[in-house]
Every structure is written in structure tokens, then in C-alpha cells.
Amino acid sequence: MTAVLSDTFQAQLVALRAEALAQLRAQRGGARGRAESAADALSEVSDDQASADTERGLAFALEERESAELIAIDAALQRIADGSYGLCLDCGVAIPTARLHANPTAMRCVTCQDKAERARYA
Length: 122
Description:
Blueprint: H1 3-28, H2 34-43, H3 49-82, H4 97-102, H5 110-120
């Protein structure tokens, strides 16, 4: 991968990381940690317990998704740093640039990703 493309993807990943961190902070109510947010959520009294449980579950799922996204972004940034970004982790083939633009955290080419998903859901 050329240095220009690498820099482009690095900038895109850094922006995605900042956005994911901002979303996590907003979900937590600022700079608070997961424990404090969970304690507050559990202490809130609701007339409808099922609704409260659903809201807590949704908040937890959103936070987990954002955390997983941060992990994927950090892994992609590490691949840029070590020079392996843009290469499929399974077969070593270059991942098409269009795929990386659509999903800058992609670790596999389309063929290997398809195989991984089929194996996962089989």
C-alpha cells in the first residue's frame, strides 16, 4: 500500500476513533466509567420494570458495540503502523481499496470474510 493511501486510511481511522469515543462518553454521561453508569442505571426507578430492563439492555448493547468498534479501529491502526494494513489476515492477498474505503477496519478480503462468516454461522 502506498504511503498516501496509508495516510488517508490512518486519518479516516483516527476520525472514526474520535467519533466512537465521543459516542461512548455521551452514552456514559460524560467522562464517567462503565461501573458508575451501570450503578446509576440500576438505581433508576421506573413504573415499568420491563421497559427499564429493555432500556438498560439497549444501552449496554450500544456500549459493547462501540467498544468493539474501538478495538477494531485500534487493531487497524496497529496494522498501519506495522505495515500489514490492507493485507488479508487469512490469505495475505491485498484487500481492495474500495473495500477499505467502505470498511477501513476490514481484516480480510471478501472471499476470506465470506468463509469466516459461513464458518461462524454454520
